[in-house]
Amino acid sequence: MIVGKVVGSVVATRKSESLIGCKFLIVEPFEKMEQGGRIVAVDNVGAGIGEIVLVAKGSSARIGCGMDKAPVDAAIVGIVDDGIGLE
């Protein structure tokens, strides 16, 4: 799991049927959390731009958001209220 900041959103009108109704957000992981830059994650908790979030990746993302058969590689599974030492 990684921690990052929501910096934007993605709109996709054409997508896999299993992703219809999903909200996609762009998350920038904190520098010490992960190398490789920004990721697109399915928003499972109602996060917004500017919020600090917990992101599950890989098969844990699909399980964490209840989308076992969807092509999901990253999912926002929590909004951080207080994170001492994250940045």
Automatic annotation (TrEMBL):
SUPFAM superfamilies xref list: EutN/CcmL-like (SSF159133)
Residues annotated as signal peptide: none
PROSITE patterns per UniProt: BMV (PS51932)
Predominant localisation class: other
Keywords for this protein: Bacterial microcompartment, Carboxysome
Example of a GO cellular component annotation carried by this entry: carboxysome
Subcellular location: Carboxysome
Protein name as catalogued: Ethanolamine utilization protein EutN
Species per Swiss-Prot/TrEMBL record: Anaerocolumna jejuensis DSM 15929
